[in-house]
Amino acid sequence: MAGHWKLNKLIVLYDDNGISIDGPTSISDSVDQVKRFKSAGWTAELIDGQDQKAIAAAITRAQKSNKPSLIALQDHDRLWRPDPGRHGKGPWRGAWRRRAQGRQGKARHFAGAILGARRGLKAWREAGSRGAAARTAWQAQFEQLGNRKRAEFERRLRQ
């Protein structure tokens, strides 16, 4: 319905890592999700899920689109950094080949995650501060609605 109704404010970030807990998603799914969403009237693209500039650029394009947008984030590297030999193979959660390699892999993984999280947190905080005025204006407008309309809006959000 989103594509049919051209809900251009809708932006979906899709974690397209190609893996499930039991192995590659190809064992249960052969759908090209980007093509699927395009066929339903969305703009859709596949980008590197580790490239913050590419993500920001994709979001900017999506905001300018007259359609809903799917941004598929291909992100194998983050998941497999602890044990690159397991890339694309499942089950992967907690599967460390050798204790020493596992400790080293975990240390690299978590150190990278912490550094990436700090950079990402800073970027998200900057984005949040840019949208603060719009959020405040929206909240003021929402507060002006009657109790019944506010309650209905909140009920629909909970569904």
General description of the model:
By secondary structure, the protein is α/β, with parallel strands linked by helices. It has a domain at 11-95. 52% of the residues lie in helices and 13% in strands. It contains five helices and five strands; from the N terminus they run E-E-E-H-E-H-E-H-H-H. A three-stranded parallel sheet has the order 1-5-4, sandwiched between helices. It has a two-stranded antiparallel sheet with strand order 2-3. Strand 4 (43-48), helix 2 (52-64) and strand 5 (69-74) form a beta-alpha-beta unit. The longest helix has 46 residues, at 99-144. Mean pLDDT is 80; it is low at 77-82.
The ordered H/E elements are: EEEHEHEHHH
Question: Helicity, in percent?
Answer: 40-55%
CA-based gyration radius: 20 Å
Instruction: Give the N-to-C terminal Cα separation.
Output: 17 Å
Strand content: 5-15%
- Mean pLDDT across residues: 80
- The number of strands is 5
- Structural class based on helices, strands and sheet pairing: alpha/beta
Lateral arrangement of strands in the main beta sheet: 1-5-4
Topology, element by element:
Elements: E1 11-15, E2 19-20, E3 23-24, H1 33-39, E4 43-48, H2 52-64, E5 69-74, H3 76-80, H4 99-144, H5 147-158
Parallel strand pairs: 1-5, 4-5
Antiparallel strand pairs: 2-3
Brief description of this entry?
The protein has 159 residues and is α/β, with parallel strands linked by helices.
